[in-house]
Amino acid sequence: MKTAALTAQTRAAALEALQASTSTGQELDVLVIGGGVTGAGIALDAVTRGLKVGIVEAQDWASGTSSRSSKLVHGGLRYLQMLDFHLVREALTERDLLLTRLAPHLVRPVSFLYPLEHRLWERAYVGAGVALYDTLASINGRRRALPLHSHVTRRGLEKLFPDLRHDAAIGAVRYWDASVDDARLVSTIVRTAATYGAAAATRTQVVAMSTNESGSVTGATVEDLETGNRFDVRARQVVNATGVWTEETESLAGTDGGLRVLASKGIHIVVPRDRIAGDTGLILQTEKSVLFIIPWSRYWVIGTTDTPWKQELVHPVATAADVEYVIDHANTVLARPISRKDVIGTWAGLRPLLQPGTKEGTSSSKVSREHTVASPTPGLTVIAGGKLTTYRVMAKDAIDFALAGRAHSLPSITDTIPLAGAEGLRVLQRQASTIGRKYGWSKAMLDHLLHRYGSLLSELVETVDADPGLRAPLEHAPAYLRAEIAYAVTHEGALHLDDVLMHRTRLNYEQADRGLSAVDEIAEIISPLLGWDDDARAREIAAYRERAEAEAEAELQPDDESAEQVRLKAVEIAPLRAVSAP
What we know:
582 residues; alpha+beta; 10-stranded mixed sheet; 9-stranded mixed sheet; 21 strands; 37% helix
């Protein structure tokens, strides 16, 4: 089956399909609100059960929490300390599924060192914990996806992580998890759902919910933020998967019931790879949680924090205090301490922390310590909590709950559905050297392309064949090909410059200038593809430049309130509509 492309044209077709749902016989089975990893997973789960599905996102795919995570696919070693063995086993099973079957191109192994300060008791204690972690990963009955843990001596530490301070550890336990480009995971899930028939539209905001005389939800009113057009969508079930916006979305149904969610901010900093000498990641215990030092291809990702967020939900930002907190904790183990001038990028995300209990009058199913599914009123299903790794389980639970008695006859099959780019990956890996010679791409570039596109690299090659000028790297961002920028529009649904720099590439935080040096070339590539005239192109460039400058200034502020005031000075290219409960 050919993978569906996401374009401005397919978005328009999806909006037409949603609008047609009010006609007799055209009603959707499921309307999903929210285009993060949970909503995308729900759309895929529902459509592969044979249901008629629509999914809408008010911003871009993965524009909220799902592009601002630690970018790890992991079991959650810290949950072992809480003795939550079921949750750890569930997450490890999902990790291994992603690594081996569902998305082996996107999800890759990464090893971590857990430094030890005490020679005997701590090595025994931590070693036993990590051994249990490995054992729980083996219970699923499949072949192991990752190596077993190992013990590392101080001499071994010096080889694996030369920049670990000599007096910081007497040895370590090395274990394995995985990493992923979270935004690409989401857009890939959406493309897979669209391939199987889901109608998917970004920049489409739910501004109201429709109810019948008995108060049951029968659909929603949505607004196309690109045109201002509003219309009704009818659906047998509406699923609210909006993360930190859960309560705001619930309120549109005119009910006091539902789940309660609080936002907690976590930030990460990005440091060039050559600034820290090490071949593996580190996990460090802090007074609040854990701090990861995670190796990526060209840089290190270091985080995270965990602080209450009480500002608006669209644009969380890292403050000077946040950045210093992460630097200070990383420096407790680094032989060559890093400083603010080493930080080339940051991002801040909001965790949707599920609060105990539900609002009065809500039926719910607490299917996990991490997530809960509930129904504040008939026709509306709400899911909140959870984490990136277990998105597929969350999606299954949400649709099982929404279908109620019908779920047994339409079981979830997403554990057998490879995501776009996974089928045929091994073939493209074997063809890579031939492709590299033909187009003049280095081994490092081919690894980058296979990691991002998997077998869909063949589509990127077709793009280059149609326009040979796209085979070259961007002049001021040579980690990416010009073809990748075009592909973001022709296949991945990018509608704005923001979409390309924030979610189709990682230029917003990979380069110290937030990708500004490459903006003109990127705009030149995508302008004809999106039909921009000179004025539209200038507006897009100005909006992104304003955004980047506001984010940079916000990082210098001492607290959330002052940082947010600075960030909100930037003009939104497609602003959300203010909505209120009926």
